[in-house]
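User: I'm curious whether this sequence folds into something compact or stays loose and floppy. Could you predict its structure so I can see for myself?
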Amino acid sequence: MYQEDSEQWWKIYHHTAAKAKKCENFNDVTLFLRLWSGSTDGEMAEGLVSDTDEILAKSSPCFFEGVLGLSKQEMVVLITHYCPLTEPEPIVKALKQAMENARYGHIAAQLLQQVEREGCQSHR
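Assistant: Here's the prediction. I'll summarize afterward.
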């Protein structure tokens, strides 16, 4: 859809991101995180990472409940492609706190490993 009608795609994207940031329903976060599974260009990837950073840093329980709604394949794409654009400290702090949660600690540990990887550090 992005290539066919980018204006409509961005409307959908911003609507989905805004709902995910409100975190009134974990399904909204899951729908937003599913965007990671699509093909992205530079502008889209930057927006996706920036909004993901915000949700993770401001409401990590909401973020992880959303992640739990993803399929295994979608989760793998998120974990292997996520690299924060912002200062990593708030993200690292949120991930370390989330590692203490039995429901999603294993996912937080994988994301933390990805964030601390040398390749991710060099993207900044």
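Summary: The helical segments are 6-22, 26-33, 42-58, 60-68, 72-81, 88-98, 105-116, 118-121. The chain has a mean pLDDT of 88.
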